[in-house]
Amino acid sequence: MVCRTLTFVALYSLALTNAGDEKRLKETLEGVFDAVQKSIKPINIGEPIVGKPQDIEVVDAKPIPAAPPATEESHFSEVFSMLSKMVDSQFSGVQSTGGISVTESANWVNLELKSGLLFGQGEYDLTNEAVALLMAVANVLKSYPSAILVDGNTDDLSVVSSRLVSNWHLSSLRAASVVDELVYHGVNPKMIAPIGFSSEHPKVRNNNEAARQQNRRVILRISKRNADNLHDYLFN
């Protein structure tokens, strides 16, 4: 509609040539644009909504409780528990005869193994039964950042072997054999070391063979404090 009107105005203006024509052109243009304005109708968008916005209820988000951090106490209670379960489930027969035991003190979890379970008399090479036992022990210990000392202990009888010099030698080599096997099965070598005590730390007096059997033993002492390596744990 608007385009056709403007086209008409343009053609009409070209046809006018004198001053009177200019007056008629002005009147015509005023009439045309007045008609155009009247023909454009506003779009009805309805009544504006006036009022306060509704409040949105915000529910307080409850924080998800974080898991409590593992403490060293809980950590090493787990070590004690896992070793105890392993012994109960796999070596209950040996446990019942006193060949293996799990205890704990203020600073250590202690796994005690009688030498008769691990070695032949006067020997430091592990038996097949010892290898199977130490594999099971390593599967537990390798999961924890624990400093481990392996104590070798003998009775008070002199050694009778061309391969050995003394009970110091025998106790140290037995402890080293146990360490080698544990490391072979995954225990971190930085976290473990052997130590030989000869016959200097008996459990009971060496006054008969039964007592001597109790004193011939290897003890794995697992620390109750986290460590990066055994050396720093002991000397820093």
Compile the SSE list and pairings.
Elements: H1 2-14, H2 19-39, H3 72-90, H4 92-96, E1 100-104, E2 108-114, H5 115-118, H6 128-141, E3 146-153, H7 167-184, E4 192-196, H8 209-215, E5 217-226, H9 230-235
Parallel strand pairs: 3-4
Antiparallel strand pairs: 1-2, 2-5, 3-5
Helix pairs in contact: 1-2, 3-6, 6-7
Structure keywords:
alpha+beta, 236 residues
**Structurally, how many domains make up the residues?**
2
* Proportion of helical residues: 40-55%
Beta-strand content estimate: 5-15%
N/C terminus separation = 98 Å
CATH architecture descriptor name of the largest domain: 2-Layer Sandwich
Question: Mean pLDDT across all residues, rounded?
Answer: 81
Rg from alpha-carbon coordinates = 48 Å
Would you identify the regions where 5 or more consecutive residues have pLDDT less than 50?
Answer: 64-68
Backbone shape: elongated
CATH superfamily of the largest domain: OmpA-like domain
Assigned CATH class of the largest domain: Alpha Beta
- Please identify the structural class as seen in this structure: alpha+beta
Tally of helical runs: 9
Major beta sheet summary: 5 strands, mixed
User: Strand-and-helix sequence, N→C?
Assistant: HHHHEEHHEHEHEH
> What name is given to the CATH topology of the largest domain?
60s Ribosomal Protein L30, Chain: A
